[in-house]
C-alpha cells in the first residue's frame, strides 16, 4: 500500500477507472454476443441488434477502450453476418 498521499489517490482513481472501463467493455461484448446469437438463429430483429452492437463498439472506441482499427474490423465482421 502506498504511503504518499498522491499515490494513495492515484490507486483510488485507477480502481474507479478500471471498474468503469470493465463495465463498458462487458456491455459492449454482451451486445455483440446478442447480435451473433440472433444471427446464428436467424432472428427478425437483427437490424436493431446490429445497430446496438455498432453503437456499443463506437462508444468503446471513442472512450479509448479499443483501438480504431479493431472497432472497424469488428463492425465489418458484424455487417458481414448481417448481410448473409
From TrEMBL:
Residues 1-28 are annotated as: Disordered. It holds the Pfam family Ribosomal_S20p. The keyword Ribonucleoprotein applies. InterPro entries: Ribosomal_bS20 (IPR002583), Ribosomal_bS20_sf (IPR036510). Transmembrane segments: none annotated. GO terms for cellular component: ribosome. It comes from the Bacteria. Keywords: Ribonucleoprotein, Ribosomal protein, RNA-binding, rRNA-binding. Residues 15-28 have a biased composition (Polar residues). Belongs to the bacterial ribosomal protein bS20 family. Binds directly to 16S ribosomal RNA. This is Small ribosomal subunit protein bS20. It comes from Enterococcus viikkiensis. The lineage of its organism: Bacteria, Bacillati, Bacillota, Bacilli, Lactobacillales.
